Amino acid sequence: xxxxxxxxxxxxxxxxxxxxxxxxxxxxxxxxxxxxxxxxxxxxxxxxxxxxxxxxxxxxxxxxxxxxxxxx
Length: 72
What we know:
Layout: H1 7-13, H2 29-37, H3 39-47, H4 54-62
Helix pairs in contact: 1-3
């Protein structure tokens, strides 16, 4: 599972957890403390999201495929 499709990736896409805020690309202690204080709420939202087909759809978008009709 790529980081983009992980529970942490979903939480970041939903704005529940901000991106890394330290210069070295990591999260600061303040962000960690805030996220831990809200962990139950974050889990509730992230755990209820079904990523059915998300990985394949993303891979198709990266490959430049379209969702238009198939040639017949």
